[in-house]
Amino acid sequence: MIGIYFIVFTALLLFFLFGFWVRWQWNQNFQDRKLLFVPSEISVIIPFRNERENLPALIESITNLKIFPKEIIFVNDHSEDHFEVYFEKLQIPISFSILHLKSPQQGKKSALRLGIDAARGSFILTWDADIKVSPNYFTSLSKVPQSDLLILPVSMPGKSFQELFFELDYHYLNALNAGISGNLNPIVASGANLLFNKEIFLEIDSIESHIDTPSGDDAFLLQDFKLNEQTIELAFKTDLIVETKPPSNWNDFFQQRLRWIGKSSKVSDRSANIIGILGMIYHLGFWLLLMTDISWKQIAWVTVFKISLDFLVFLPYLSILRRKRILFLVPIFSIVYPIYMLMILVTTLFYEPEWKGRSLSE
Question: For the whole model, what pTM was predicted?
Answer without folding.
Answer: 0.87
